[in-house]
Here is the input.
Amino acid sequence: MSRIQNVFAALRQAGRKALIPFVTAGDPNPTQTVPLMHAMVKSGADLIELGVPFSDPMADGPVIQRASERALAHHVSLRKVLGMVAEFRQQDNRTPVVLMGYANPIEAMGYEQFASLAAARGVDGVLTVDHPPEECAEFVAVLKRHGIDTIFLLSPTTEPARVQRVVESASGFIYYVSLRGVTGAAHLDIADVAQKVAAIRQHTNLPVGVGFGVRDAATARAIAEIGDAVVVGSRTVQEVENSPENEVAANVGKLIAELRGAIDAK
Here is the structure.
């Protein structure tokens, strides 16, 4: 079993839900990323979604866009992000790490080289926002050969026929985008999310993580009643942005602990 499968299996056996925080690698600076990852795990994160900074993050709202800009100002490349994962693995060989980003840097490196390096550095899954399953069968196959899961997005507007197509290519877990728009948008409709997640489960046994609208403990608790995982992105990055650099890990850790407590209290 992969690290992702192991974590979800253990949580399911314990009757708990996964907490998956997102941070952008290199934000606020490259030296902070690995300590921040460890702080999140210590505070209750079950998986880490590590953003690969990109100059045109089309699915991301202004908070994560600014995080990419800060990281790129430090010249954080895909290769450097993989190095951060390797450094993280020196102390943590249990917590799954999923890279989230865009196709361009991966294609520039080449599928085979990327997959080989990612596997060697300790990456467990990859989510490329602009790589739909209809266009990346080769990429999925290469990742699979190297033991890396391919995470795909489903949205409120995804038709049932396409849901089936997506889950056939996916592994690890399904990421359900809980609202229309970019990351950090508001107005999350919990009843609608519950209906859509139930519909997805008719097509797959993969765990379903829900993100794109989780901003506080109350929302995290509500989502934990519906999905198998709560994904927190813009809120975590916002904490990074608003914290003095010497307090980033502590402040993000406090936020993760609050969310963990709310999820476990469901």
About this structure: The chain has a mean pLDDT of 93. The chain is about 50% helix and 15% strand. The two ends are 28 Å apart (CA to CA). The domain at 3-264 is CATH 3.20.20.70 (TIM Barrel).
